[in-house]
Amino acid sequence: MPKNILLVDCNDSRGLVHAITGALLKHSLNITMNQEFVDKESSRFFMRTEFDGPLDGVSLVNELTAILPLGALIKLCDQQPKKIVLLVTREPHCLGDILIRHEFKQLQATILGVISNHDSLRNLVERFDLPFHFVSHEKISRQEHEQKILKLIQGMNPDFIVLAKYMRILSPHLVDLFPSKIINIHHSFLPAFAGAKPYQQAFDRGVKVIGATAHFVTEQLDEGPIIFQRVIPVNHSHSAQDMANAGIDVEQIVLSSSLKLLCEDRIFISGNRTIIFD
Amino acid sequence: MPKNILLVDCNDSRGLVHAITGALLKHSLNITMNQEFVDKESSRFFMRTEFDGPLDGVSLVNELTAILPLGALIKLCDQQPKKIVLLVTREPHCLGDILIRHEFKQLQATILGVISNHDSLRNLVERFDLPFHFVSHEKISRQEHEQKILKLIQGMNPDFIVLAKYMRILSPHLVDLFPSKIINIHHSFLPAFAGAKPYQQAFDRGVKVIGATAHFVTEQLDEGPIIFQRVIPVNHSHSAQDMANAGIDVEQIVLSSSLKLLCEDRIFISGNRTIIFD
Amino acid sequence: MPKNILLVDCNDSRGLVHAITGALLKHSLNITMNQEFVDKESSRFFMRTEFDGPLDGVSLVNELTAILPLGALIKLCDQQPKKIVLLVTREPHCLGDILIRHEFKQLQATILGVISNHDSLRNLVERFDLPFHFVSHEKISRQEHEQKILKLIQGMNPDFIVLAKYMRILSPHLVDLFPSKIINIHHSFLPAFAGAKPYQQAFDRGVKVIGATAHFVTEQLDEGPIIFQRVIPVNHSHSAQDMANAGIDVEQIVLSSSLKLLCEDRIFISGNRTIIFD
Amino acid sequence: MPKNILLVDCNDSRGLVHAITGALLKHSLNITMNQEFVDKESSRFFMRTEFDGPLDGVSLVNELTAILPLGALIKLCDQQPKKIVLLVTREPHCLGDILIRHEFKQLQATILGVISNHDSLRNLVERFDLPFHFVSHEKISRQEHEQKILKLIQGMNPDFIVLAKYMRILSPHLVDLFPSKIINIHHSFLPAFAGAKPYQQAFDRGVKVIGATAHFVTEQLDEGPIIFQRVIPVNHSHSAQDMANAGIDVEQIVLSSSLKLLCEDRIFISGNRTIIFD
Question: Are A5 and A48 in contact (CB under 8 A)?
Fold first, then answer.
């Protein structure tokens, strides 16, 4: 029997868990996992339920719509792999990690293609029989370049866009086209060291930990809702380059862990925060 | 036989380890631990050596001065407990942790006294038979208040001043009087969330880790050389207050670990970075 | 309005969450936090619910008994501080940490007294105006010694007994008298290095991490259900004694974190495992 | 100028650092990093020195032999990539991680080939244009199987053999042929859960952390000198299979970190412990 997932995001009110579990029970669906959270700041209720059973999705959603507060977001997911497109520049480690996990079905995702503003990772991508699209940014305007990339993305129609060390800033225009659908890995524990050269910034400041942050991309650079962060200790013997080398492991784990959460429908966004049922 | 520690901080040049170990050998001193580091940015050499043996300190330092580059800082330490003064406001956890470690000789330090701008921690301090000095900041100017505190500190003549959750900003004047002698615990992983209410700032930004930083106090608030940092994971269920509660453990470990490093002569300062031989 | 906690531990069946939340709703109680888990191995359902509202406890429990599977364990907790007794030997760090947290109400616990087979920690305990009971084990049999301790414990009638580095093994007889009520801190990441001198064992094996484990005490030494574990890295430069020193921080955090979970009614026991709603 | 590394492992005596640095100075070699350690248990001295400069290796080793205690092990390394052979069974994650790092020169190693008792990872290996050798263990004796593998290994003549999730036990005979040259990844924090099915063992014991250990292979299964260990937290919601999934990240980082240390000549073995200069 297929596993299904119900996501509910609505204004809080008394009795929501009871009401939703009642609807599932009425449909003879068997809840195998249930997680809920009320964000007191926004008075918003979030619930993620995994259940088995033969599903009449339309009728279930209709019933939930009737009993939930007006404006409730109700989503039924069928655990099909999510379709993703990767954007990269020249660094291979996050891409390589995702390609291996993808190849061995450790991600609930299907990679539609990889787009880059350099040609250097073509070989790696093609080793895995995946399409690689090289879109040089040379001799064209920033806008033209992004247009070409946008056209490629739209041609593939992905569920999510993953910036796996893509070293160019997306325009607000492009970001707006894919709300809550673009994730990025930034090589610092944000909000520290946003922007360029975070390892050099970290070295200059003399910090004793470095880290990485995966987040949704919004119009404000490096300020979108954070999904996952992890750090590792460093010491005085680390140059900025040593930090960058040491950071590789953290970056790839933070990105692939976030991608996993995303593809398993475990992330809600509430304002500038994420609610993650892991 | 007493254990001694030699600290050397000088311009780098070829053969320094050989030269310094030669001087110790000539004095029949037995090196039990040796650590050295060259900061390539500043071309500066740092070395910390533990050794046993009957010591003619004056003669050793004279010899080292003769063979080391001009301007070398040479320090011989005898592992006597360092004398410290604590400044606190109202939070008991960092203070309590230090008092327990002090009581059971886990710190190489002697607490000369505790100064506070509130009277609420008097009872805790006096439980350990240590002097508590209450200096109210009410009805007097910031300057007058600091003058009173300064006078108390100067009367005790400590090696180091420890801000164990002291919630007032010291003036540049006071800081200048104790260069590289004041350490502070800040309840965030600096440089993120400097200044007031770091847990609220962390909550507002929606971070997935929180942390604490111990650093030397300089004229620039929360910008001095960092000694130690540690973080713990948080999630969407943590309110700002929950983060503050969870942060207690990290704050006290970061501060007492830093204090231990300081009292064991394990920290060098190089510009705005620390070199720590742990 | 007081916060209440409902704990349910029963055989799993479909619709439990719906049924329990229905009963609470009927009583006009407002759920502020709900966590549930089904242990598939044992087909057992666990739920912890925090709620506000004027409570008719007897009637609520009666209703839940009627709707839940036969043999369900139903517990209503009122968030009163738990009464605890500490047993210690000579090491001060775990005891000191708990005393400080107790003094500043960071634990939902009231310490009734501290019992030790040595007199050396009396001074520390009495600094906090708490009863210290010295029961020497010298010149009497192991059985006689335990009888004296048992009598003291029974006189105080605690909810929980905390072995805060108590270096003697309790007899199965005593353990049986307090099922699921005694917790211990062991200074290794169990099941590695059970029994005596875990740091020496860790040194001898050459491990690169050391840790601590808090667990419920059962008849089998160091084999009861584990509550919390944490580790820290070590390296070749750590002697067994260095490991013991470094382990202090971990031990005290593991014990006090576990004690907090216990006193906040967050722990269920399922066979030899714990279910922890934190 | 090429970077060179000197490794010294000898009985401890006074003045060794001075003597060795003197020999390097005499050859006008410039020390860029120096690390030393004395194992007090065995009274053994270990030193690793990185230096630049035009090198007359034979003469330097001769001089060091003359001044160091009898039986000193002196090794000059030229930072050429180490030649390695990988043995695998069916799990792709550790292998995949190493292949990516190898492809992008993040390991100081050259993979000569991959040997497996199953054919399922052939495709992955051949994507990277590396030789894959399938040696089925079916229908032949354990001894015959190992003979075939041994012959393959000997044909490639590697510096190190890496068991990257090779699920068969090597005989003492084979292990003896490659002393201190075989490393293995075990999916538990040894010494806990040695042998088969460590995640199931961890689940059964109800631990709150799981981990991985990389170690040298000796005749005693899972008892060789440990190189690196790391753990991650788990909770009651993790089945044995969930632990295995979560453990993937730790296993691959522990193995590739250890391989990096090995290939950069950073590991000494002292009895059953490793000394690691990282």
Answer: yes
